[in-house]
Fold 2-C-methyl-D-erythritol 4-phosphate cytidylyltransferase.
Amino acid sequence: MSDDPLPPPSPNPASGRTTAPTAAVIPAAGRGVRLGPGAPKALRALGGTPMLIHAVRAMAASRAVSLVVVVAPPDGAPEVKSLLDAHALPDRTDFLVVPGGESRQESVKLGLDALPPGYDIVLVHDAARPLVPVDTVDAVIEAVRDGAPAVVPALPLADTVKQVEPAGAPGEPEPVVATPDRSLLRAVQTPQGFDRATLVRAHETVKDDVTDDASMVEQLGLTVVTVPGHEEAFKVTRPLDLVLAEAVLARRRLNDGF
Ligand SMILES: Nc1ccn([C@@H]2O[C@H](COP(=O)(O)OP(=O)(O)OP(=O)(O)O)[C@@H](O)[C@H]2O)c(=O)n1
Ligand SMILES: C[C@](O)(CO)[C@H](O)COP(=O)(O)O
């Protein structure tokens, strides 16, 4: 990885590139408090390789993605640069590393600010979703290319959901106030895909703390559309998720014969 500024992308349809160069921003600056004590979550091992490297490879697996911007833990950019240098990544993809912020939203904004001109489609992908299949990534990009300003991969819910009155104190029972119609609800994943100008405007306009980028676009009054998500795009949040991720990876390695 060089520290030289990147030139704008040169679209080359003959090489499989699209006419709308696409970049992926990977927020990886979280601590991973819910996963428990240890290194920042994105740097923890999954199948012997940092989770972040899996997420970077998942983005770079799409032939449409020509730049990946990794948003590192605030004081971890040198370590992340070394990790990218130490792991095999596709030559056709460029990489940038920038330090992140206090919240996911701030980290994504810092990644967006670092994007060179010329990338018209931007994916935002959690480092904490290391196993998203390339078909899901490509489906998101395709929907943005087809004209949607914002696209999210989404899955139906397996559980019934209750709206509650928050407990007054930890451990107190929470009265249920409603049971939303589950058939109208979706659990959304990443990568979320955007027309770049829309995402930049959303981050400049919306100041509320939100948990995903698409909801900022919703606040602009624009329509966000879904594409089918994938069970293996789950987020590694709690310790059991890491057990599942190891199992999915082991099954993939068995199926791939290595
Ligand atoms: N200040 C932050 C907080 C989160 N993230 C990133 O946003 C993604 C989704 O966040 P989450 O799974 O909640 O990660 P953490 O914030 O690390 O988890 P926790 O809330 O358990 O601490 C992760 O890839 C995480 O690294 C980030 O870049 N900057
Ligand atoms: C962006 C996201 O992964 C979509 O499901 C999710 O909102 C991130 O939430 P977190 O609380 O920051 O993990």
